[in-house]
Write a structure and sequence with these properties.
This protein is mainly α. Helix content is 54%, strand content 7%. The chain contains 13 helices and 5 strands.
Amino acid sequence: MRFLTWLKPTWSQLHLWNYFGSIKQMIDLAKANPDSEFFLFLANMHGFTQIHNQEEMKNNSMMAIKLYLACGADTKQFVIYNPADIPGHAQLNWILTCITHMWFMERMHSYKDALNKWKAKEIWVWVFCYPILMAADILLYDADLVPVWKDQKQHVEYARDIAQKFNNTFGETFVLPEAKINPELWLIIWTDGRSKMSKSYNNYIGLLDDEATILKKIKQIPTGSQTVEESKNPDECNVYNLCKLFLTETEDKELRAKYLAWWLSYKYAKEYLFEKMMDFLRPIQEKYNKISDQEVKDLLAKNAKYVNEISEKKIKDIYDKVGFNL
């Protein structure tokens, strides 16, 4: 079985949402499925929709891969690669574009949102074409399961529909991928009470943030108005909801008991969250700082050879079926 997912290098670092929503999920799946392959691709071609600066793209891409590795991705089981090194992504993107109707793409959530926000003449072409490239990224490797966030489920559904159309027209070619969503992730409440951490919301905590920055962000988390003497509902507290991500079952029970009893202050809860968060982040940051750029380049070069072999075989089959190969 082959799992596949991606991470866009559109920012100078990753945050806790990226970790729990993508990286940790893939690492946990790898441990549970030791005989499966896990493809992790750098979505820099997708990131190009937002970044048109060479150094920024390179630095963000290097950061994302280093953090994958620092968080525990085992390179013996994880195939981390750069699609820009694989011509098959662009080749398949064009094939799929040519068999996809306009009306089908106009159903996209992102396209509809763009129409609502901007005038039609101001929408970039990539807003419309983005999901077709994502479909190519997924279908090129016959991925069985695609771990995604709930708001990305439509990408996998589009990939399935486009693959089915190709299969119906040219014969069985593509595996129909299934989206894998972690429902518990959407129960997490972040620093401002939202169910999603984002740079645009300014409610994120970065994996590479220093201690002073993290402490400042934790102190700014809004809390209830109960006094120290009053009992508190932990499930209604943003501090607790973040803290439980880093606790053992025993630690969680102990903290919940303190919330429900008297004399727990929000100051104590925030200090405890800071302590647990730093215990989690320090090893990641230490590993990250030890990974050199050359190690990443060597890894990508090695994986490009392996992935290209798979891609070229798939593209040959596709080109044979559509009549490109004479």
